[in-house]
Amino acid sequence: MADFTTPASNASFVREGTFPVKAAIVLALATLADWLFYGQGIGISAAIFAVAVASGSLLTNLATLNRKQVLPAGALLLVALFPAIEEFNVASLTFMVLALGVGLLLTTNRDRHGLGERAAALCDLYLVGPFRFFRDAIGAFNLPALKTGFAVWFIPIVLGGIFVFLLVSANPLLEKWISLLNLGNTASYVSLGRVLFWTVALSIVWPFIHVRWSGTRKMPAGMAEAAALAQGIPSGQHDFFGVATILRSLILFNLLFAVQTVLDVAYLWGNATLPADISYASYAHRGAYPLIVTALLAAGFVLVAMRPGGPAEQSRGIRPLVYLWVAQNVLLVMSSILRLDLYVQIYLLTWWRVAAFIWMVLVELGLVLIVARIVLNRSNDWLIRANLITLTATLYACSLINFAAIIADYNVSHSREAVGKGVWIDMNYLFSLGPQALPAIDRAIALRGFDPTLVSRRGCLVEQQVKATAWRSWSFRSWRLQRALGAQPKSTTTG
Fold this sequence. Notes:
This protein is mainly α. The protein is 73% helix and 0% strand. The protein has helices at 8-15, 18-37, 44-60, 70-86, 90-108, 115-127, 132-139, 144-170, 172-179, 184-189, 192-209, 221-230, 243-269, 280-285, 288-305, 318-347, 351-376, 380-399, 403-413, 416-419, 427-432, 438-448, 452-468, 476-486, 490-494. The protein is globular, with a radius of gyration of 27 Å.
């Protein structure tokens, strides 16, 4: 796992001749990222950048490389790049990011063998590793006082800024208040977007170039205390995620989330009157997905801050703040579910909206499990197993549910043709759902009136369903559909 402690040997290593080389490579990669991504569409450029990062990591870590794993890691990355080359989207990006992390773990860390250890190492690489760039950069100038103060305040300020951005993007009221500050004059002198882009690019690339995994041996609490005092560092503050940093972060984050919580309680749940220039629909529908991203980042911070054996785990002052913040995130996810439900009531269901509902429920359960791990004093392995069991049970349940029929039936039942309000039935989308949508399609044809084109398209779906009744392609779901279609009156389908 990525280690934020900076022993003398590591600090001197950073300051020695290897640091300028690594810094030059990181700057080159950030320049490449600027050329490939800033203000540009993303496609094959993502695959090119991934190869560049992997090559830079390979070049700077030759001395500690596990050469037996280089070929498997390279093959893994190559396979993961195919989806990004085919089409860049969230799924292909996920495969690419995971392949880079797993490849780095295989080639530079020989001490991680269990699934839990490897998963924890990857979490630290992606959630904690980016912050190491700033600490190492300051450490290179040998300014311990500045380093300590920077470490204590950097995470609260940076993560607080990210949370502010996400909350503002999800809430038109907050966006309106921010716009009243009139920050346009400042932005005209400095390209804040580009500065932020370079900051993110440097911090993301740095863990792959300057690789540090924490050792598997744990120092006893008494020895860690003595070592911290010997270095003149207060107990619990020698770590980048020490008590002081976590305490400041949680206080700031709770205050930021309290603003969103109060606004949601007042306007989303309480139906309070909004300003004249903001509609209730825009407030309710806009923030479902940004708030879920916010909750995921919050969960990642809690996992890192409250890691087993960490300085904050036993702190009586930090635990209540963690519980309060997780409770606010649970309410945040519930608000996201309500927002999406209100959106579906107007614009009806789709596969992606059903998936979003399921994903939000999983995030909610994940937050509850994080609290359970802290309260029950369980390990991260327990948390991983619990989440895997939850995910497996959810996927198993989903495999038994006829979502196509549910979506089609809901869309027809809540359409303008059926209830006199909302949107019209999207017949093209109904037909794209396949034969399982046939009962709903028959109802839609009856509501819209006889249309030869729709009846012809329905006949194509019926042919698909008839083929599915052959014994080789038989399924219980198709059999039930065939019985339902056979029980329908003929006039429903012939007009």
